[in-house]
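U., I forgot to send this yesterday:
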Amino acid sequence: MDWKGEISMLGFLIDLDGTMYHGKVAIPKAKEFVEKLREKGLPFLFVTNNSSRTPEMVANHLQEMGIQAFVDEIYTSAQGAAQYMVEHQIGKIVYMIGEEGLEDALTKMGFILSESGNVDAVVQGIDRKFTYEKLAKAIQFIHLGAEFINTNPDHLLPSDEGPIPGAGSIAAAIQTAAKKEAVVIGKPSPIIMEYAIERLMRKVPTLKRENIWVVGDNLLTDIKAGVFAKLKTALVLTGISRKEDLKGLDYQPKIVAKDLEDLIHQLL
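Result:
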C-alpha cells in the first residue's frame, strides 16, 4: 500500500538502540530520517526501554551523533514507571534499584528514595552495580507488601564486549525470590505505549491513533508493542531482528525495511 497519500497525517514512535544508533555510532541515514520528519512537520517521540539515562542525557547523546533531538521528544521507561506510580497512587516511598535516569524520573515526580522503613514500592531498572544486598532488600520490602515495578523486560543488552544482563534479568532474580510478578512498564507492555501515544497526541491534537507508526528493530519489543496497541509498525533490519525471524510469528509488521534509507523511500 502507498502510505504517501496520507503523509501529512502521520505520527511516529521511534525506538533508539538498534534503530537510531548502535552504542556511540549513529545508524546510517538516522540523521536524514529525523530531518525528513521535521521537514514534513510530522510529530514523533523517541521511546526507549533504557531507564539508565535521563531525557537530557538521551537528547545529548543523539546530538553528539549529529541527530537533532530535544528533551520533550524523549520518553523513557523510567518516566513511564514514575507516571504509572502517580496514576495508580501507589505511594511516595520507593526503594530503587537503578541508575541516574530512574532516580531522576522518580525524584522529579516527587517520590522519596529510601533503603529502610516503610516502602510503598520497589522500582527496578537496569543497575550495573546490582548486588546480593540489593536483591535481599528488594525481596524483604516486597514480602512486607511493597509493590514491584520493573522498567522493562529486556534480559540482554548489547555492549562493546558482547551481551550483558538487562533489567529483565535482574527482575527475574527478584521475582524468583519474592514469588511476585513485577508490573512491567517498557515495551512490549501496553503501559509505556499508551503513555507515549497520549503524549504524542497531546502535541498534535488532530493526530489520529490509527495514523501512528511504531518504528523499531526488535520484533519482540518494538513491533509486538505496536501491533498489540493496534498501531502501524515498521521493522528496520538494522538491529536485533532479521527477516527470517518473521517466520512463525502470530503478528507481523506492516513494513519491513532493510535500513532507514529504505524506510524513508517506503514511508516518506
